[in-house]
Amino acid sequence: MSITITLTDQDNSTLRTAAYGAVSLMAAAGAPHKGITHGCIALTSATGLVGHVLAAKSKDIHLHGKSVAELADQALPALTAAMSLLGEQYPGEADNFRGTVLVAVEAATQLGKGGPSPAVAAMARKITAALDAA
Question: DSSP secondary-structure letter at 117?
Answer without folding.
Answer: -
